Amino acid sequence: MNREYQWFSALLCYPEAELLEALPEFQTALGQWPLPAAQKATLQSFLDYLGSRSLIELQQTYVNTFDRNRSHAMYIFEHVYGEDRGRGMAMVDLLEEYKSEGFSLNSNELPDYLPVLLEFFAQIDAEKARRLLGDAVHVIAHIGNKLEANGSPYAALMRGITAMSPVAPQPLIEPPVRDMDEAMETFGPDVSGTEPLLKPAVDTVKFYPKDAYRAAQGV
C-alpha cells in the first residue's frame, strides 16, 4: 500500500474531530518520511495549522476554500473540461479504471474528486500510481497555484503531492465553456441525472489532454 497518498487524501478531506485526534499519527508518519528538509517543513506547516485552530474554525475555512470558490475545486476534470461534454466521458473512463483494479466507490463523491483519486493511488501498484499521478499533476499543481495565490494553508498539500510526481507540471488552458442544458438535451442524462450520457471512447484515463490543447493553440 502506498501510504503517502493516504496521508494526503485524509488531510484534504473535510476536517472532523477524528482528524485532529489523529494528528500525532500524521506527525509520526511525516517524521518517518524520507523527504528533503524544505519539503518536510512545508508539510509540517500544514500540520501546525491544523493543530493551532479550533475544529469549527478549520471547518469554516475548508468550506470557504473549497465549497465556495470553484477555482479551488478538487474535482480534477472540472479544471480540464469545465462543462464540456468531454468531462462526462472522462468520468466514465476513470470509473472503468477503478473497476479494472477492483476499486469501488463507497461514497457519494465523483471519481475525479482528489481525495478519492489519492485513495485509489494508495491501493494500486506503485508504478501505475506514479504514472497516473504524472498525468493528473498538471491539474493538481494548477489548484495549488490558485490556493497559494489566495494564501491558503492547503497549498502546502498540493505542493507536496506535486513533488511526488515523476513529471513536472505544465500550465493549464482555461477549460471550454459549453451549455450543459444543450448537452443534456442532446445526449440525455446519465444515471445520476447530472451529466450527459456518454459512452467511453478510449481505454485509458486522460486527465490532461495535451494533444487537444496543443491543437487548439496551433502548436
UniProtKB/TrEMBL annotation:
Domain of life (superkingdom): Bacteria
Protein name from the UniProt record: Nitrate reductase molybdenum cofactor assembly chaperone
Protein keywords: Nitrate assimilation
NCBIfam families: narJ
GO biological process, one term: chaperone-mediated protein complex assembly
Pfam families named among the record's database cross-references: Nitrate_red_del (PF02613)
Molecular-function GO term, any one: metallochaperone activity
InterPro entries tied to this protein: DMSO/NO3_reduct_chaperone, NO3_reductase_chaperone_NarJ, TorD-like_sf
Record keyword Transit peptide present: no
